[in-house]
Amino acid sequence: MLFRIPQVLNLAELASIREILAVAEFVDGKLTAGWHAKAVKHNQQLKTALPEAQDLKHKVHSAFVRHPLFQAAVRPRSIHTILFSRYDEGMSYGRHTDNALMSGQDFHRSDVSFTLFLNAPNEYDGGELVIEGADDEQTYKLEAGMAIVYPSSSLHRVQPVTRGQRWVAVGWVQSLVRDPAQREILFDLETTRRSLFAQSGKTDEFDLISKTLSNLLRMWPTSVGRLELLTPRSLYPC
Ligand code: NI
Question: What pTM value is reported for the model?
Answer without folding.
Answer: 0.89
